[in-house]
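@channel anyone free to eyeball this complex?
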Amino acid sequence: MTPREAVDRVLLYALLLAVTVVVCFPLAWAFFTSVKPKDEIFAWPPTLWPQAWTLENYRTLFAGKQAYFQGGTAAATAPPPSAFFLDWFLNSVLIAAGTTAISTIVSTLAAYSLTRFRFPGQRAVPFLALIGYMVPSIIFVFPMFLVMADLRLTDTLASLVLGYVCITLPFCMWLMWAFFRGVPVEIEEAALVDGASRLRVFLEIVLPTAWPGIVAAAIFTLIVSWNDYLFGRVFINTMENLPLTVGVMHFFDGTHVDWGLMMASSVLMTVPMALLFALLQRHLVAGFGAGAVKG
Amino acid sequence: MAPRDVPARGGPQRARRSSRLRLSETQLGLFFMLPFIVTAAAFMVWPVVEAIRMAFFAYNPLRPDDVRFVGLRNFEIILDDPLFWESFRQALVWTGWSILLQTAFGVGLALLLHVPLPGIAAFRGLLLFPYIVPTVVIALNWRWIFNSEIGVVNHLLLRAGLIERNVAWLSTPEMAMASAILLNVWKYTPFVVICVLARLQTIPTELYDAAKVDGAGTLRRFLDITLPMLKEVLVVVVVFRTIWTFNKFEEIYLLTRGGPGTTTFNLAVYAFEQGMANLRLGVAAATGVVMIALLLAGSVVYVRVSGFGAEERPA
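replying in thread with the prediction:
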């Protein structure tokens, strides 16, 4: 390595490091705020590194509403929004799991059908899926609300699952379709000739080869259904039934804003996504490559 | 996506199999399609039909029995509404700056992350992370770090001597828009990076070696090799990002609620407020129809201007 190259290299690393700091700062700062005691959070000038560490904010969030009702001061006033944190967290987990299961299964079956069978109108489906993928959710949200009202589903977790299926299915469909087109059919044909049933071929040959595509579709669905705010805001009005994203915005309701609680919940909301990202980063990038991602 | 040949299918053995299954191939295919058809009909086609139908009705969700056909009245209402036009102008500012900055930073970062350095994979991972962080989390963090009284950004800028007193990041019209654009750029630049990086990795290195031999400098090589190679992916990225950014709701609403006043409204926030606060679902739907029309028109114009898809790609 010549001295010139060494200098270049140091400069490049410095640049990379600077960008990384800018990118990570908001989340790092959220974490530091969440572990500071109240008086330190509101201190000016702010302390960059927490001087006294505390888990107080996390304890409040995990206490749940039972703790509030047993506290004695109950009955007179409604519990504060933070008492519902555990409910919201569970809701979001259930919604994300339900949406992901439905979206991936339905899109895998449909994409398999589109690439392995012939029937009228099949050419239009991927095209329509791509159009559906471009339509923003603000246009869907009110009509979806009316559909849910007709089905007597408003204010239920099911309404959110169905709503998110509607916004994730077009992309999953398109992703799986692109994926199945790239999988050669010869092995399947050979197995069919040898007398294996369609179902067996599907379960034992098709599914294992399609696995990377299914994982990419599942990650995309998990991200959308975990992160969305709009549908939860419009469909749900009972505190207990809110998803996490809509719930934490209620922390702004009072006159006094508790930034410690807010930052602790934003850390807890990010952790599942961060774990998923760390575990499946390779698949995620593969999925992005297969046709970008909505956002 | 590269076009691939759809593998040939059918043939005599297939006909024999299906008679054994007692379902024709077409029926079996439709059977696999059935869940998709049912879901799509109930939760995609139905809402879209509702969305368009609602645009011609006066519809208050609190009085579901009193739904009146009003023809084009909803469209007249929004076109006469100064707030609609204000939202439209602000949406252009919001979209223009967001796309410009995202594309510039995105290409720059992708070039940086394309350099073969030891440990570059770790940086690639870290720098893509903002893309999957929930918008609610980013909006909360933004409100906190850009807090005008105790926010850390003001503190750092004061200490560095870049500003003399605290900046009201979220409570003056210009700064609120700038903060929202910054949030959008922070979150979605990784999208551009991913797309550009994927394309960069397919450019043959021989091109650069040859140019080097011919004495082309770094800038020349970028302008004459990299940029033309990126043109196609950039067109796709810009069109997609423009469509999505123009319609973004959460990034603005959660940060500023469209405020201060109405100075950061875009059409999505306008539609939301019409439906949610004013309970005029018909007017909200009419706004949605206008948004879709604008997007279709916009993407057609852009595709024409850029010549995307006009020339055949050499193999």
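from a first look: The longest strand of chain B covers residues 57-58.
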